[in-house]
């Protein structure tokens, strides 16, 4: 009986909500959002979009650096790993799971003093990168672990039979063979980080989240709120499309296509006027170096020097 009353009250609230909707107001807000978009984009949204992309890319890059060692250790210490160690794996896995379960908003507040030590301020885009990088590092470590575990055991055994050391197996076999899955995981984490960066805007981290809070929520500007959401949706779709392309190209070992795409991104970053583009260019250069290393390893036929 109580369930029936609950359902009836629930549907009554939905009916009341629908009846209170003014389709005329929705049409006006949608029209105003379209008409004011060019002006708002140039004055407010474009700088915020650049900050969001900058925060997300830098956070994932630094987070990936922090996650490489834990990711490798998790994969090698796990059951059937190349150097199985159940106790060490359990301890490291427990620590990473705790860090993943930590509320991100609280993590930002806790790490504000660390941000001030590293970048000299606890407010702004640069300050938000520190907690963002630390926050996504555990997720990246588990992503790397999962990618490494999906490598065919037969390839690893073949490398061992050729006398390859553990370091050679990790960097010349596992990393190379797991590259498509790593790219796929990085795409998901980058999208995840964009959501985190929007949350960082609530504590003065800058970016689209800051715009949505200050202009959209606090000033009751529905047009800015809608425009911010639309930009975030488009940004996520673009990243997912690029991630899928990189995944399929790396899956088919078409590394030259990846290099060509990175060169295009590098050219776009040079043409556009953004004072922080040098960071973006540096990241692309790092990816280009990794791509060339990947080609070099493939050309050596992998086991030739084992």
From TrEMBL:
Q: Which UniProt keywords apply?
A: Cell membrane, Membrane, Transmembrane, Transmembrane helix, Transport
- What membrane topology is given? Multi-pass membrane protein
Domain (ABC transmembrane type-1) spans 49-243
Q: Name one GO biological process term.
A: D-methionine transmembrane transport
**What does the UniProt entry say about where the protein is found?**
Cell membrane
Entry GO CC: plasma membrane
The source's domain of life comes to Bacteria
The membrane spanning regions, by residue number, are 53-75, 87-111, 117-140, 182-204, 224-243, 255-272, 278-297
InterPro entries from the UniProt entry: AA_ABC_Transporter_Permease, MetI-like, MetI-like_sf
What the entry lists under SUPFAM superfamilies is as follows: MetI-like (SSF161098)
Among its keywords, does the record have Transmembrane helix?
A: yes
Q: Which family does it belong to?
A: Belongs to the binding-protein-dependent transport system permease family. CysTW subfamily.
Q: What is this protein called?
A: ABC transporter permease
Lineage, opening ranks: Bacteria, Pseudomonadati, Campylobacterota, Epsilonproteobacteria, Campylobacterales
């Amino acid at each position: 009986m109580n369930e029936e009353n609950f359902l009836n009250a629930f549907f009554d609230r939905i009916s009341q909500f629908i009846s209170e909707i003014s389709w005329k107001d929705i049409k006006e807000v949608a029209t105003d959002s379209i008409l004011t978009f060019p002006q708002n984009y140039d004055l407010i949204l474009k700088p915020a979009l650049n900050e969001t992309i900058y925060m997300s890319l830098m956070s994932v890059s630094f987070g990936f650096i922090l996650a490489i060692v834990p990711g490798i250790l998790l994969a090698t210490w796990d059951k059937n790993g190349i150097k199985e160690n159940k106790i060490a794996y359990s301890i490291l896995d427990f620590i990473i799971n705790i860090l993943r379960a930590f509320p991100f908003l609280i993590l930002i507040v806790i790490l504000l003093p660390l941000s001030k030590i590293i970048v000299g301020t606890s407010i702004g885009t640069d300050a938000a990168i520190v907690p963002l990088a630390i926050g996504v590092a555990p997720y990246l470590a588990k992503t790397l672990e999962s990618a490494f575990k999906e490598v065919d055991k037969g390839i690893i055994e073949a490398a061992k039979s050729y006398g390859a050391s553990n370091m050679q197996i990790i960097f010349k076999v596992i990393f190379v063979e797991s590259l498509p899955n790593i790219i796929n995981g990085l795409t998901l984490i980058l999208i995840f980080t964009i959501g985190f960066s929007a949350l960082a805007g609530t504590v003065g981290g800058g970016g689209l989240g800051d715009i949505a809070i200050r202009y959209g929520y606090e000033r009751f500007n529905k047009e800015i709120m809608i425009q911010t959401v639309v930009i975030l949706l488009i940004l996520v779709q673009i990243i997912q499309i690029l991630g899928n392309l990189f995944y399929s190209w790396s899956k088919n070992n078409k590394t030259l296509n990846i290099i060509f795409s990175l060169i295009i991104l590098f050219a776009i970053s040079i043409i556009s006027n953004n004072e922080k583009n040098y960071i973006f260019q540096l990241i692309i250069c790092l990816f280009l170096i990794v791509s060339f290393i990947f080609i070099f390893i493939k050309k050596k036929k992998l086991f030739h020097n084992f």
